[in-house]
Specification:
Length: about 375
């Protein structure tokens, strides 16, 4: 059975061109980029190239790129790095719908005495800029608000948020892991001081990411060791990963416009067909300000996990809004923050597409979804069909 992979917000397939670029760095060009000999120097050149490729995608200076071990590290390094550089300020502003890499980090910092304010979202998953304005003050060390949400695809008004932060002189970090590679970036004249991105969300390898740090933004590294990354991130570089990420950035830049319009058409086709064929289905999140590849759909009165299991029997990979942890089915914190009713939040499914999806695959899913939903509704104790 063929796998139909519609879980690209969880991770993506490494592009063939990326893999080819990485391969020689394992057994052929395995030198340490910090070495004085030319064998290491050749490897250093590859890292410099990757830094330029990442900077080109983001529209920033190569010197503003810090390679990390992924999105999670970038988020931690940004928030903790700013706090350490401004010890007198004790307040962090974020949102209720962040990825756990930001949310759990902030809640842990709260346990250590920081004041954390989590902005609410409305039913579309959007924040209220006035709530942010009301909470910015002299004590605020950092604002961290994601560029686009991983569960719903909702895109936040980053330029407005950043402008407001700037008028208060507060550093602004954005987790842009889901946005980079899907929407265009030009950070050179944009009011954001730090962003996080992750290789494996844009057809690069896992375990490598970038923290963009605007020139002049002071952060204290949270790991100490060698002088790598201009003293901003110690540790011998993950050279194959960095080279792969660089190539993935180059590909994303080349393909973004053409591929994303195609992906958006497929996403819209899937979404519209499901709404038409499956009763009591609704889209979660702002339909206008949304990533082109993501749809999050609630099916009332049935369990997301059950839908996933039946999809899996057809070889279709998607993800559900609830995380089955320690035996208790908790609906997603994102959907809960949006006020999605319990019965709908439990039955939510996220389809996230990529450039590798075909129309044939989408047609197959469109054919199977009503069969799955009707079957589960017949079993549901809540509904008479
Ligand atoms: C995947 C993801 C992360 C974590 O990135 P890793 O590289 O897996 O650590 C952080 N934020 C968002 C929004 C993500 O989707």
């Amino acid at each position: 059975m063929k796998t139909i992979y519609l879980d690209n917000n969880a991770t993506t397939r490494v592009a063939d061109e990326v893999f080819a670029e990485m391969q020689p760095l394992f057994c052929e060009f395995y030198g340490n980029p910090s070495s004085m000999h030319s064998f290491g120097g050749r490897v250093e050149k590859k890292i410099i190239q990757a830094r330029h490729q990442a900077a080109a995608l983001l529209g920033c200076e190569p010197a503003e790129i810090v390679f990390t071990s992924g999105g999670t590290e970038s988020d931690n390094a940004a928030i903790k790095g700013i706090l350490a550089a401004n010890p007198a300020k004790r307040k962090i502003i974020t949102t209720r719908v962040e990825h756990p890499a930001v949310l759990t980090t902030c809640r842990e910092l709260e346990r250590h005495g920081y004041i954390v304010y989590e902005l609410a979202v409305d039913s579309r998953g959007q924040i209220d800029i006035d709530e942010l304005r009301r909470n910015l003050d002299d004590n605020t060390a950092v604002v961290s608000i994601m560029w686009a949400n991983n569960e719903t695809g909702v895109i936040f008004p980053i330029e407005q948020i950043g402008g407001l932060c700037r008028s208060y002189g507060v550093p602004f970090h954005s987790d842009a892991v889901q946005a980079v590679g899907k929407i265009p970036f030009n950070l050179s004249n944009f009011p954001v001081d730090m962003i996080s991105l992750s290789g494996h969300k844009l057809h690069g390898p896992k375990g490598v990411g970038v923290l963009y740090v605007r020139k002049g933004t002071k952060i204290v590294p949270f790991m100490f060791g060698g002088h790598q990354e201009s003293g901003r991130r110690a540790g011998t570089e993950n050279v194959p990963g960095i080279v792969g990420l660089g190539k993935a950035c180059e590909l994303a830049m080349k393909n973004m416009q053409h591929e994303n319009s195609r992906v958006k058409l497929l996403r819209d086709k899937l979404e519209n067909a499901i709404l038409k064929t499956c009763p009591n289905a609704t889209i979660n999140g702002d339909k206008v300000n949304r990533l082109p590849n993501t749809t999050n759909i609630s099916f009332e009165f049935i369990e997301g996990e059950a839908i996933l299991m039946l999809l899996d029997q057809y070889g279709i990979c998607a993800s559900s809004g609830s995380a089955c942890s320690s035996g208790s089915l908790e609906p997603s914190h994102v959907l809960r923050a949006m006020g999605v009713p319990f019965t709908a939040a439990h039955g939510s499914i996220r389809f996230s597409l990529s450039i590798y999806n075909t129309e044939q695959e989408i047609d197959f899913v469109i054919e199977k979804m009503p069969i799955i939903v009707n079957r589960l509704r017949q079993l549901s104790p809540f509904v008479k069909v």
